[in-house]
Design goal:
This protein is an alpha+beta fold. The strands form three sheets. Strands 1, 11, 12, 13, 14, 17 and 18 form a seven-stranded antiparallel β-sheet that branches. Strands 2, 3, 4, 5, 6 and 7 form a six-stranded antiparallel β-sheet that branches. It has a five-stranded mixed β-sheet with strand order 8-9-10-15-16, sandwiched between helices. A hairpin with a 2-residue loop joins strand 6 and strand 7. Helix 1 packs antiparallel against helix 2 and helix 8 packs parallel to helix 9. Pfam families: Peptidase_S41. InterPro entries: ClpP/crotonase-like_dom_sf, PDZ_sf, Tail-specific_protease. Keywords: Hydrolase, Protease, Signal. This is Carboxyl-terminal processing protease.
């Protein structure tokens, strides 16, 4: 399985970057220098800042807005990608990296020319993708990275909840460290695996007659890659497939089989709830990356309150982030008017998001007054609140966890990924690749900087081997 990249606020990328100087007449593939602006000492109040002018106003912040590559050529080259990255990073980056950006760009250009020859003649391949990934990782910022063509397409699909490109089982899984099989992290309600009776904590041992066993000498990464291929092959045809699984409950282990019929699904599963104990509702948020998340959370919390629940467990484990407007909308159901943040940007057009009575409002160096998200029937949780996090919780998850902790919520699990104090934009670069750039530093509504991560005290490891043998350690801790 690939490393999860972290998302927060998909916007127009580098909408107002400086015009580059023309290429040198003596070196056809010299990448032009791009000046880096200075943040103004006294930002002005503006209804719509320059970097949002191409979006049609704040109402468009709920969706992904991607600028087209600046050079719409039939066959884009490595030169085009290098220039795109320079313009986006120099014109927009406002994170906490101490790297000399101009030196990084120049070193990357020298390395690229030595490896690929003339940059305008260098076609875009898997090899150039690897180079661009290493180059942009040199910014040393967890929110600034390149997406290859497949990753960029998957990102766009998740934001629009587009149908998956092939039939799926409807689960999230992980290889069991040091063991055979794939343990289920999620079996989403009303999707094929859950309809066939599978649930979180079940360990898939075989699919379609093919055992999911670890090969001699396999590392965990190699085992996971093999499982990914086998599960993908078994589900791609959309035909019924027999799944053998192990389930451990109350210390008793059983092995059983069921038939699952994979089908095309949404790329972005919405939150769902279950009742792990009387009076307790477990609300699982797999992602913030699509519209409708906040609406669903408010509806589920309202339903839990009407059913008499007194303890809410919000499960953000493995949630790598998503739309900031959705995150603030979710936080509004937990902390009311304390939900919000201000994003400080390089151009000085700082943006404040705030939750007010069922709406997320935005303002630009002004009071937040422009609606960007509305919840039909707002809920406000007032009972006991526990937040589950792990090392896969990032960005929007860290923001929600921090805001909830400020009002007394208990954090349970592991230290989070560590980018919860910045905001990113994601846009297209040449060759249908994507580029994420940190464009803002985040403060809460009191003006205090948010922290890069959250750390429960004490920590409880989110142990996959324990889960595969019937023990969800962070959840058990939350229920005690």
């Amino acid at each position: 399985m690939t490393r999860t990249r972290l998302l927060l606020l998909p916007l127009l990328l580098a909408a107002c970057t400086p015009t580059p100087t023309p290429p040198s007449a003596t070196q056809d593939d010299d990448v032009p220098t791009v000046a880096r602006p200075t943040r103004p000492a006294q930002p002005s109040c503006a209804l719509t800042p320059a970097w949002l002018s191409g979006l049609g106003g704040p109402g468009r912040l709920m969706g992904v807005n991607l600028r087209a590559p600046l050079r719409a050529q039939v066959t884009p080259s490595l030169f085009d990608q290098l220039l795109d990255v320079r313009e986006a990073i120099n014109g927009s980056y406002w994170g906490e990296s101490g790297v000399d950006l101009q030196a990084l760009h120049e070193q990357a250009e020298r390395t690229a020319r030595a490896a690929f020859g003339n940059l305008r003649a260098a076609d875009l391949t898997a090899r150039t993708d690897a180079f661009m990934n290493e180059y942009v990782d040199g910014v040393r910022d967890g929110h600034t990275y390149v997406l290859d063509a497949a990753g960029f397409r998957a990102f766009r699909d998740s934001l629009s909840a587009a149908p998956t490109p092939a039939p799926r089982l409807g689960v999230r899984w992980a290889a069991v460290p040091g063991e055979d099989g794939a343990v289920l992290l999620d079996a989403f309600p009303e999707w094929p695996a859950a309809q066939a009776g599978l649930t979180r904590g079940d360990t898939l041992l075989a699919i379609g007659g093919q055992a999911l066993t670890r090969q001699p000498g396999d590392s965990d990464a190699a085992h996971a890659a093999r499982l990914n291929a086998l599960l993908g092959q078994a589900s791609a045809a959309g035909q019924p497939v027999t799944v053998t699984y192990r389930r451990v409950q109350a210390g008793a282990e059983t092995t059983a089989s069921t038939t699952v019929t994979p089908r095309v699904l949404s790329s972005a599963p919405l939150p769902y709830a279950r009742t792990p104990a009387p009076g307790t509702v477990l609300l699982r948020l797999p992602t913030f990356a699509t519209t409708g998340v906040a609406q669903q959370v408010h509806a589920l919390i309202g339903g839990a309150q009407r059913a008499g629940a007194t303890h809410l467990i919000l499960d953000l484990r493995g949630n790598g982030g998503g739309l900031l407007s959705e995150a603030i909308g979710v936080a509004g159901a937990l902390v009311g008017d304390r939900a919000g943040e201000t994003i400080e940007t390089l151009d000085g057009q700082d943006v404040t998001f705030a939750y007010r009575g069922g709406q997320v409002l935005a303002g630009y160096n002004c009071a937040p007054t422009s609606p960007v998200l509305g919840v039909g029937t707002p809920a406000r949780w007032t009972g006991r609140l526990t937040i589950l996090v792990n090392e896969g919780s990032a960005s929007a998850s860290e923001i929600v966890a921090q805001l909830a902790a400020q009002t007394g919520a208990t954090l349970t699990g592991e230290r989070t990924s560590g980018v919860g104090n910045t905001v990113t934009v994601i846009g297209a670069i040449s060759g249908d690749r994507g580029l994420s750039v940190t464009i803002g530093r985040a403060n809460d509504l009191r003006g205090q900087p948010l922290t890069p991560d959250v750390t429960p005290s004490p920590t409880t490891p989110d142990d996959l081997r324990a889960l595969a043998h019937g023990r969800d350690l962070p959840l058990d801790a939350a229920l005690k």
